[in-house]
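Tutorial sheet, problem 5. The two components below are modelled jointly, 493 residues in total.
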Amino acid sequence: MSKEITSRADNYSEWYNDIVVKADLADHSAVRGCMVIKPYGYALWENMRDVLDKMFKDTGHVNAYFPLFVPKSLFEAEEKNAEGFAKECAVVTHYRLKTDPDNKGKLIVDPAARLEEELVVRPTSEAIIWNTYKGWIQSYRDLPLLINQWANVVRWEMRTRLFLRTAEFLWQEGHTAHATKQEAIEETTRMLDVYADFVENWMAVPVVKGVKTPNERFAGAEDTYCIEALMQDGKALQAGTSHFLGQNFAKAFEVKFSDKENKLDYVWATSWGVSTRLIGALIMAHSDDEGLVLPPRIAPIQVVIVPIYKGDEQKAAIDAKVKGEIIPALKAAGVTVKYDDNDNARPGWKFAEYEKKGVPVRIALGARDLDNNVAEVARRDTKEKNSYSLDGLPARIVALLDEIQQNIYKKARTFRDTHITRVDTWDEFVKTLDGKTGFVAAHWDGTGETEEKIKELTKATIRCIPLNNEQEAGKCVLTGNPSTQRVLFARAY
RNA sequence: CGGGAGGUAGUUCAGCCCGGUAGAAUACCUGGUUUGGGACCAGGGGGUCGCAGGUUCGAAUCCUGUCCUCCCGACCA
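Model answer (structure tokens):
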């Protein structure tokens, strides 16, 4: 039945690709490393975006839009940031094409149209934004400046995977300026909390909040906070980051403000972002060998209704019930519903199709059901089917959607919790990574050298130092040097 | 960027070694019968064989280049 989708056991990578393509989320494009997000996938992104956008606005942020291009001189102003991204920047060098004199009908880059200064296609927007903020901020009265933008960015990746790592992707980036260090740090953690709230309560993906080690930190940041999620194959995925940028960008772009005492000081900055990568996380956290499994709260279609009938008479009776009563009631209850009465496809085909696409609830309604005043309700997460009375059906569906949301979160949560393994020896460390997989909580001596060595030996990186981490004396799992706390290691996407 | 595999109908693939009028299944269209887990019968339409060169009387097939995809590495603040 599900022969179209490679099973996870057979080939996890292919399974992932199959889900993306066959659930109609996205396609490869003619451009290397770039994807086409299809309407169903984009609808999912729009739902995610709308929820996040509201959360940002509820925490005082406003949206704006900054240019795609960053002059190279601006880009290089904050040295560490520029260095960090240098290897993966697309660069615009010319502004004109012309007809190839040697090859009619073909175009070549016009060598006479070279730009005096190259333009970097933004891999992130700190540079252009801080250059702009310089003109917007004079006094403490202009602060805090709380701006977000929804945009595309380009990072020239060697190896790409739909949603997880593409050369161009969609995201939001928040860029804020504050009068005090304390306030900027509070903003950083506030937005981390917003991300965790969204990913756990809307996407139903449990996350660990933590801080990155200096090695894994955003280039140009003082501290990088992150939320880390665990995928079904036991690999970790960074689902969002929030950076405390200190005064690095303020200094690089000369952004000063006068405080109440009329003293000049550099402002304090944060930036934070989540991207279409979240869709990759969503897929790998919940989906199964039959296809996508979507949490009801962000599913583009929450309920699909499939009529089962013989002849026009039965169809008319079902139509009347569905269009006249069920759909209006569901819509009134805030449920997104699709009635698929397309006569070209048989019910069985539709069942398989909507399972593949991860629609949380399916209602099948036939003539027999009408006689009994019931409907067959199937849930995507457990594949259970039950008949429910048509009286009170909308309320039952609303409750069921909520149950599904809770259930898939719990399932992912249990998987995550049982895949955090405390280990104290190198032997266990390696065995856990290779066998059980998941997060390994181990002592680390705090040095970048040890972190590098472990990465080299096992391909595992320190995903984060969890927030409010328990302090506990121990010995580094690799070097045996003293350590004060355990950190989370994992192989990661 | 290295190593391997691949690109032929909307899709999955055969044909290529050994050059000679482009194939199957499925999807699609028309008509009919159907409809409770991927329906059936009959008829029909659809492909510059990724793209560009070359060899040849003749290229999906041989040669060169190039683009794209997949797998494994390297890379990934």
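Marking note: Residues 420-490 of chain A form a domain with the Translation Initiation Factor IF3 fold (CATH 3.30.110.30). Full credit if you identified this.
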